[in-house]
Design brief:
Blueprint (H helix, E strand, L loop, with lengths): L1 H23 L3 H14 L3 E7 L3 E7 L5 E7 L7 H17 L6 H9 L6 H18 L7 H20 L4 H21 L6 H9 L5 H12 L3 H28 L16 H18 L7 H18 L6 H23 L4 H7 L6 H13 L2 H39 L1
Antiparallel strand pairs: 1-2, 2-3
Helix pairs in contact: 1-2, 1-3, 1-4, 2-3, 2-16, 3-4, 5-6, 5-8, 5-11, 6-7, 6-8, 7-8, 7-10, 9-10, 9-16, 11-12, 12-13, 12-14, 13-14, 13-16, 15-16
Length: 411
Amino acid sequence: MKHENKISDILAFCADLSRNMITSGANLERVKLAAESICRAYGLRDVSIYILSTHMSIGATDKEGNYSSRQVSIPPSGIHLERLRSLNRLSYKVAEITPNARFLGKMLERAMNVPDYSDKIVLAGKICATSCLSFMFGGTFRELVPVAVVTAFIHWFMQVLERTGLDRLVINALTMFTAAVFAVGFIYSGIGGNLPAVLITVSMLVIPGIPLVNAMRNLLCGNEINGILQMLKIFVETMALGLGIYSALAVFEGFITVQGLSVVDIHPSVMVMLSFAASVGFGVVFRIPTRDLWLAGLGGALTRIALLMLTPLTQSRLLYMTLSASVAALYAEFLAVRRRQPSTYFVYPSIIPLIPGDLFFYALSGLFFGERSWVELNGINCLLSLAGLSIGFVLSSAVSVHVRRIRYVKG
């Protein structure tokens, strides 16, 4: 019975650790490798791990032939990179020193208790990020007030709706409908003049860009079931966002129209600085500690530099997005290896300059206004951008995944 309890404790810890890593933003390959390495470190055999985005099952046999298993459900995921870093470090520590299994639960509890930003600081990070993005999407100083106010509203309104227990689709639709009404009100009253810039910018707060990258990564790294399920979930949630925006525009159809973004000539050095600041802002939103925010900003700046250098060299959106994403991923993987931290800790803020929020907006705009050319051009370019982003991310990180797997096997 002693050995049976021990293996049960180990598997319970692996399941709980995996669940918390996923809900903090970890990719599934990293979670599976962490659980496998811990099981091997304790001498467990015939380890079987099955992970979906909503469920995990793990089973194993100890040296005496005792078998045990554990299943846990996984709640909707968020992004808390400081907690993910702490949990990632715990996985390395447990695999290295194999403490008594009875103490694993308390170790996990301590790892979960990490410093966090106050709600006001997180809101400030969102406003910093969206203010920078508004310039990137063709806005001017006139749009700063609408962007800041609508950002604050979305931040507050989503918290209120989530406490009601409403379905995510309903929350997305209601949030973007109300946010779009606020944005239209500002533009109609003369506070700001570029409605698309405002709507595109604030929608970046709720567009599931990071989950989309993870879904594509799962598809290309052998987790096809997870990838397909995540892609379907993202598609439905995105349609709910679009429904909310364009329901609001339909109400004001006689008062306001959506036209293409005006071309704003921004000096490359300014674009790099804006990308740095936007990634720092999202770094706060992703809960990266203050000491590492400059690394988040540096990743965004390097990605923007790569994009600015590659765009004039080729007209292939797929190619220059793939290469730019590879720069972001390689930067993240380098820091991950050097600092023994998950690559997601650095890659999430680094890819912010590559999220095609403007293309997504105009593809949906074409559907609403019956502009077939908008749908075809922007829709295709949006898909190419996302494909290039995902391929670049996967190609660069695949090397690291296999290197880590080899290390765990040897360990």
